[in-house]
Amino acid sequence: MITFDTVSKVYPDGTVAVDGLTLTAPNGKITTLVGPSGCGKTTSMRMINRLIEPSSGTIALDGVDTQSLDRVALRRKIGYVIQNAGLFPHRTVVDNVAALPRLLGGGKKETRSAAMELLERVGLDAKFARRYPWQLSGGQQQRVGVARALATDPPFLLMDEPFSAVDPIVRNQLQDEFLRLQADISKTIVMVTHDIDEALKLGDQVVVLREGGTLAQAATPAELLAAPNDAFVADFVGSARGYRALGFHNSDDRLTLNDEPTIAVGQPLSVLPGGHGRWVLVVDSARVPRGWVDTANVAGDQVREGDVNLSGTTARRGDPLRDLLNSALSSPSGRCVVTDESGVLLGTATDHDVIDAIRRARGVDGGQEHSDRGIGIPS
Ligand code: ADP
Ligand code: MG
């Protein structure tokens, strides 16, 4: 647990970067610090490992005042990842990761083999170990940066805009990988970002700072979206917050799926049961959804590859209701397609069913009429 108790930082030129900050970053969780540029995020974070000294107030790690720890002890306890990874350019990838353990007295062999394990853990192939940072993509460098920060197995991890220098697709991958890694290692993490989407996606707790370095709100993502403290937070969280909030309502237990008649490419429409609708779901031989077919417009007497409309998306059981809504709205049939973990069809629900589930999840009037229908996706 990292605690800030009325911490302030005034730079020598008189700039008040952080003003009376009090907050707790709980153990094993990710706390994201977010806010407009210059609101004191980096300053706050760097005061934790004393790269910057607070002007007043106390920062403690599991109740121990950081001022009572020497810097070597602090470095051992706190991993640090920065934007662009900040790797040593003249050292190989493996030596970058092993650098701090070596500095702290570890043997060459052990530190290297530990570094190799860490590289694998962050999803980097062993063939990159002997390369130099400039020979890696931005996303790969960032993985090395994370591995290096974890090299002393510190309980605390600080990350300053770790994924902001890579393109959006790679950033998304790195974020997903990072969440999987964290599920495994359960570090106590403080992450700075200016990107509210990233803060909401990665944070168990989101701390919004405002200019002048004061706390605007600290809350879970769902709370922040549902009940912003004031106009500043509401504005910062953005106009799409209703939609974003759906990302935090899980589809489990809230929706009963319907059986969906299916067809495969090469099959005639006559395999379909009577009374099927105009749009029919096409699956492959493993019952993995392929797309939708408009039965009113099938040219021959059997479904051909070219008949399959690929515009719909699928969602997996347990995905946020937002993803189910997206699947329903992107599907020409108006039905969302839900699969199990391996992509096999479980069933569908109409856009109305999904909206009703959303209303129930939010406790809004109007979903009640279905409450006797029994909720819960059959497993
Ligand atoms: P953020 O990371 O949220 O963008 P910073 O913590 O980097 O914000 O900076 C907070 C404020 O402190 C800004 O106004 C910035 O200009 C100022 N600042 C940062 N570092 C220094 C410094 N070394 N000297 C004077 N002012 C600084
Ligand atoms: Mg910053």
Automatic annotation (TrEMBL):
InterPro entries: AAA+_ATPase, ABC_transporter-like_ATP-bd, ABC_transporter-like_CS, CBS_dom_sf, P-loop_NTPase
Residue span, ABC transporter domain: 2-236
Origin superkingdom: Bacteria
Keywords for this protein: ATP-binding, Nucleotide-binding, Transport
Enzyme class, UniProt record, top EC level: translocase
GO molecular function, one term: ATP hydrolysis activity
SMART domains noted in UniProt: AAA (SM00382)
UniProt-listed Enzyme Commission number(s): 7.6.2.9
Family statement: Belongs to the ABC transporter superfamily.
Protein's name according to its UniProt entry: ABC-type quaternary amine transporter
Source taxonomy: Bacteria, Bacillati, Actinomycetota, Actinomycetes, Mycobacteriales
